[in-house]
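Predicting holo structure, 6-O-phosphono-alpha-D-glucopyranose bound.
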Amino acid sequence: MNKKRTIIVSNRLPIRIEKNDGELKFIQSEGGLATGLGSIYKRDNNIWIGWPGYIPECEEEKEIIRKRLAELNLIPVFLTPEQIEGYYEGFSNEVLWPIFHYRLSYAIYKQENWQYYKEVNQAFCDAVWAEQPNDKDEIWIHDYQLMLLPRLIRQGDANISIGYFQHIPFPPDEIFRCIPWRDELLEGVLGADLIAFHTYNDTQHFLNAGTHILGLTIKNNCLQIGDRSVYIEVYPMGIDYDKFSALAENQEVQTRVKCIKEHYHNRKIVLSIDRLDYSKGILERLYAFENFLINWPQYNNQVVLYMLVVPSRDTVPQYKRLRDEIDRLVGHINAVYGTNEWTPIAYYYNTYPVEELSALYAAADVCLVTSLRDGMNLVCKEYVASKENKQGVLILSELAGASKELLDAIQVNPNAIDEISKAIVQALEMPKEEQRKRMDANIAIVKKFNINHWVRLFFNRLREIKHIQKNEMSR
Ligand code: G6P
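Done. Tokens:
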């Protein structure tokens, strides 16, 4: 029973619970993290701890859920409506999310939400300790919703192995400094042994925050907390390359690709897929598309912008406003530039199964990613993986983490509307050979640095660090 265990902790479990007609439904997430860590948490007595996204109606229902999830190696942390409002919507998504995406003016600082954030991080800590981990085990904590958790766990065991990965950017220290509770947040994360980000810049911002805000010393890429070294490193996350490349070749997906192309009368398809979020530059993309229609009228009736927006956080006011604004702008563009035969933008606010996403990737002539700030962005990698044997051009914001890897995309500044419009023209007019050359170069990266590679690298490094720490202590 003393076998080493891996405990994964994230705000959301890789399964979402919903209740339809009185029946509980357990819906498996298709997300990158769920796929990547699937082979780990399902094995042996490893577990994943997180929120199932559902509020049970009574204690009995909680028990039923606990038992069902336990069979899948999943441990739920249930949140009350007040905790969802204060910790998830209020603090995580109205303080940390906007600040970490460089949107100072969107942040709403409320003391009571900070209290909820602390309370829920403590609840996650209790859930971890209820599993009785020991210092042979490895704990991998994911993302900004749980910044206090590394330290809370460390207080219970000085030697336990803790990794923290942040999937969103870490801003420059002068932006991070604006958060009234910045010291506690930093100290919280620094309970980990290894803190990792998608890009080199994020690691530098974090190191600066450690020195400038907490006054810590840096040794190489480590921050020194007393005699403990905390390693700050970069591990860009990948996708399940094989899954996406195989799906694009799948017979049913191919049939669907044909239908999609026919539906749009073989016009060129420019595709965008994002969660509803102001960090994704959806409005800027629409302005750029309008500018493209105005300045390159020869493309009228020749091109469709297929824009899928996946519902997200729509209880947060900023997101509701964005949705209204998108509705208005899409309506305006279609009404002004559309004709009886042609609607310039096909806009959907929906969640699609992965097969449909794959068909869209495979069908699209251009994929347009215009994030104003993005930790990584996996959509562009999924598009690339769907293009092994197909033409396509990726236009990628230079402000998305993925731009540091996908150097053969057409890179744009998402705030430069004219530059995006020009990039659309460049993509539409790109010779086939150039498309192939650029796509192959991007494919090589996405294929090699895939999700399994990412998981392996992170765990190997965490083990190595524990080893270094032990040697240092015995000296
Ligand atoms: C981003 C974050 C994740 C988060 C996801 C969906 O990718 O990095 O931590 O889970 O968005 O957002 P949601 O608020 O629905 O969990």
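The chain has a mean pLDDT of 96.
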